Automatic annotation (TrEMBL):
GO biological process: inositol metabolic process; phosphatidylinositol phosphate biosynthetic process; signal transduction
Organism: Paramagnetospirillum caucaseum
Residue positions binding Mg(2+) 2: D90
Molecular function GO terms recorded: inositol monophosphate 1-phosphatase activity; metal ion binding
Residue positions binding Mg(2+) 1: E70, D87, I89, D215
InterPro entries: IMPase, Inositol_monoP_metal-BS, Inositol_monophosphatase-like, Inositol_monophosphatase_CS, Inositol_monophosphatase_SuhB
EC number: 3.1.3.25
A Pfam family hit: Inositol_P
Protein name: Inositol-1-monophosphatase
Catalytic reactions of this protein: a myo-inositol phosphate + H2O = myo-inositol + phosphate
Family from the record: Belongs to the inositol monophosphatase superfamily.
Amino acid sequence: MIIRSALLNVMMGAARKAARNLVRDYGEIEQLQVSKKGPADFVSSADLRAEKTLRAELKKARPGFGFLLEEGGEVAGDDKSQRWIIDPIDGTTNFLHGIPNFCISIALERDGELVAGVVYQPLGDEMFHAEKGAGAFLNEHRLRVSARRKLEETVIATGIPFIGRPGHETFLKELGAVMGQVAGIRRFGSAALDLAYVAAGRCDGYWETGIKPWDIAAGIVLVKEAGGYVTDFQGGSKMLDNGEVLAANDHLHQPLLKLLKTARG
């Protein structure tokens, strides 16, 4: 049996509580109030309800911590060294189209370092969780990144820029460079789950640009604790700042990074 820290128990409990209404809302999508933030960027009453629940549960357990929220923005706490980074529904477009690939993502950042992450896929009851130095898990099972060494045997996940987002031409160059070297490319529509799948060895790698901190913060912890590498496209650690992320095992990370750098010129 896994012995989890009080911190992870708090995060997992908050995710499960928010998920109850989320699953109910998913079953009643036609009745949801939906508004547009951008040309293809939606926010629903389900997002707002889930975020409210997460914020209330986490604040109750750790009153001094701050928040970085997808919908609510940045909220300072009395403890300036620690903040929650939250996406109440990562994969909102999937959710609103009845595609069952979305999740709740919660990360804790301490003194500028990501130290814990939870990615919960409620429809499959898949709770991915990790804490710095303690490993990554899916429910009760320890996770390890894929052991594949050859690009031609790999399946790589990515995200595709949609209407209103910049970088379409650059992405097509990246896609062309990678697709010619790998067994397959997948676009699932949830960055947090893409990273969780890399941690679980379901995907061998994942790359995306123009991504927000709340989309990837928890997943970064998962991949690192599962033995993988996560960097920006310069091979650095500024993923949350510049919106670039590349995750893979130690054999595939550098070859993928080289392909992306070449494609971007």
